Amino acid sequence: MSRSERDLVTALRDELAAIDPSRRCDHFAEADGLGQGAIGREASVARLAVRLSRAAKATATDPFDWTAAADHCRIAWLRGRFLSRGSLSLAGGRTHLEFVVAAPEAPVLSSRLAEFGLPASWRVRRGRGVVTSKSAEAVGTFLRRLGAAGALLEVEARQVSRALRGELNRVLNAESANLQRAVSAAGRQLEAIAILEADGRLVIQPLAVRVVADARRATPEASLADLAERLGVNRSAVQRALERLERLAADGLAPRPGDRRRRRALRVAGTQSAGRAMA
Q: Which of 38-47, 170-179, 252-261 has the highest mean pLDDT?
């Protein structure tokens, strides 16, 4: 993860840590979710832990009960759990949310996250429970519900910008590949036309084929669609004519019995056809 991405995650966590719930029950719920895991993390989270511990001590209440708690208390608890046990990675445009908790808590936390629309898997790794979610949309919605709306706007803006750059690169690469294929095809076609003209076979081709050959020689850079528009015919007709020229040229390159007699007859026929055209 780049430095800018780490800074963005830090800003998101700072934004969540700066939230001061208005209800005393939320203070208690967030303090319970925060637990003792905030020590040694960001300064903002450490300050939050101190502030909430004081509020929790001043609040006479029963232990936090997720099943009976209101939604705002559950959100406060999850916010505390994320700040103390959660981590967020945005490396390479991929969102990865992870909680590292005690092994018995992993399935419980996964179930609680699912209740808030965040599908998360869990496993035990080196004796610790690991709960993860890689759905960028679900993670964004979850963190927004926790209160990180401001930082998430920047996260989403960067993701959109990265997606647009990726799409632009794909389009440019596709256009470049198409252009390269068109250049290669035009080169083959011009070579085929030259071969057929040299051995006299071009002049005996149907008029439509010769017209396409002339257009290709006049505009080597033109696409099939451009040639079709210029000649006033269908693109498929242009393609068939050029494929015929390439096929005839390729056939002429392979030595076959009677080639000399065939070529002589073609030259004679070509001369006679040209003479008739001039008459």
A: 170-179
Distance CA 151, CA 144 (A): 9
| Structural domain spans, the chain | 3-147, 168-254
Q: Which amino acid is at 208?
A: A
Q: Which CATH class is domain 3-147?
A: alpha beta
List CB contacts of 127: < 8 A, sequence separation 6 or more: 103
Q: In which order are the strands placed within the sheet that holds 128-133? A: 86-89, 96-102, 128-133, 121-125
Q: What is the pLDDT of residue 140?
A: 86
**Do residues 130 and 122 lie in contact, with contact meaning Cβ atoms separated by under 8 Å?**
yes
| pLDDT per residue as tens digits for the range 127-151 | 999 999 998 888 888 988 999 888 7
